[in-house]
Amino acid sequence: MRVAGLSWIRRDRLTGQVAVGLVGVLVIAAAVYGVGVASAQYRLADVGAWLSAKSKGAVVHVNGPAAKVDGKAGVIPQMRGHNIKIVQDGATILIIDLDTGVVSRLDPSQLSIGQSRSLGKGIQVLAGAGKAYTVDSVKGVVQQIDPVGLTPVGAAADLPPVLGQAGIDGKGALWVPVSQKGEVAAFKDGEVQPPVRVGEPGDDLALTIAAGAPVVTDSTSSTATVVTSSGSPLKISLPTTVRQAGRGGVLAPAHTDGKTVPLLVPGTGSLVTVDTDTGRYSSTRLPMPKHRYRPPQMLGANVYIPDETAGALIVYNSAANRFEKPIPVTNPRSTLDVFVKDGMIWANDPAGPRAVVIDRQGVQKGINKYKDRVAGGPKRRTIPLPGDGDAPPPARRNPSSPPLTPPTNRPASPPRPGDPPTAPANVSVTPGAGTMRIGFQPSQGEGIVGYALKDVPAGLSAAPSAIGPGAGPFTFTVTGGDCGQEYRFRVAVRYKDANGRTREVLSTASDPVRPCVTPGAPTGLKAQATKSGAKVSWTAPPGGGSASYKLTWSGPVSGSKTVSATSATLGDVWSNGNYTFTVAAANGAGTGSGTTINAKLTGPTSTYAVRMNGNSNAYIRATASTSSTVVVTMNDNNGEQVTVNCQEQGLRFEHSSDPNLSGDMYTNITWKGKRGYVPAYLISTPGSWKSFVGPSIWKCEPSNSF
Asked: Among residues of the chain, what percentage have pLDDT more than 70?
């Protein structure tokens, strides 16, 4: 059987084939080895991905380990030639026509389009953790949808536009950057959760879901904020070169499998890898050609930078601080769709037949989406490495010529005999606790004597003092410095010229770095009630250097305070009740994640004398009201000492003979084992009885608790 429009599919090599037509809104008709779709079931590879084939008006499923197409499905005829985005989350496969806003659901078990709806052009469509959402960035509307029927689920919510690229965390909540407010907001179960402050209003914000947790990079302030489950964000100070990213900010991936987020600053060539677990980063400045790049992706130690000008992936080995061979994907100046899925990097040319899949070991396999087998594979060509300059496109070759091998980590034009060595390359910086590590790639050329670190300020020391020309390690460690200051370094290669004189060639300056790391979480957090207020104490995290601490609390009284010591007495916290205290350490490298405790605080008791009860009765009542139940009666006991527990403002009382003794303040006391409330004028507490004494006498919890 031959299906019109799908003659390019070889049916003896496919799991199934589907022809798609449009009758009315959408009618699907398919034939797979003569079996109707309704009765056909297809099992695709568990480790694989769906890729778009724009020119064929189809989507294909590729087995990752085999790099072979194992399923293909046509899409709506009107989508042929359109820009298509595929959103895939388990069995939820959504095909978005970016040109028209039509969204279609693909049933992977039947290789057929199950539903199709027009959701509007420019609408973000996301799926993850079993949930699906739409985001209207211009209008500021977020909505959960049914991933099967594509219909709204629950109420929509409004956020201040324009909204940034959203993401779904590991628990199925939608996170949306709200640049107008300098916040990131979560939307879950039809409600917008309390926003998290990540920057200042109007800042350039980029969201990455890293290992299921939201991470927001603020290019304007050079910070990255990790939103933690405890509600206390981890804020990391990044090199100030991040601010030079220009309009739109840094290039950041939409999500990462691991907790490390790679960031590319196209304007400077700075590549920053941020460990969102520890709050530490490493940064290197790469001399990148002036090409068109897409957000970098990371798998294992390798960072893959999509270079659309070259139609390739630039590969940077962050562990070895060197470039690996670039990976050709497709023709120069082609759009690249690059993402991480199932522990693999996928790079696809939506408009052409070529794609590449790469595993954690860096093993790459080419994919031809139009054929099952490709004799010889795609032709190779020279791809410029960062540092090679803005190399022109390669000249057309005779097809019979041998393939060109992509360059290794060597400059395009190695030095000739007698020329100075090349400058040290890839100068990277990594902050430590009181240290700064500077790595580099060695020079190439003749007469090299060794390497020295330059621009080390007075008072700081570098070790080793020099590095020989051998096999390395090519790393300096600088000790000392101020956490509140950034430092830049250069590496000099020393060599002997033709006359035997020692000369130097300097590298470019490194990215800025601080001699400190984002502090960890404080430990041993405790809170207790004292006659001076709530006393909160904790133990400093190791390795944080000189730090300040942000202390926040909520309960009967809420507030925040920044202190330099590891304890604080809160003179305005003197109300009995349940509190939540959180403390986070901060230094020049950022603000660490917080430690939180819940504590029930009850103020200490005091002893004071009874007054104004001579030859009369004083009633101790169950609540702060003169009409509540009498617990016990005191008679003619002026001067007798009673235990004062707390004070409360209750129902107003009127004194029958002295208007000056009317009011609404009550003192909670214990007398002869009985506890209750008396009008405050009956106890000789300090100050005016008509107002709270605090913090030496705490406020009571609501009186119905006694």
From this structure: 86
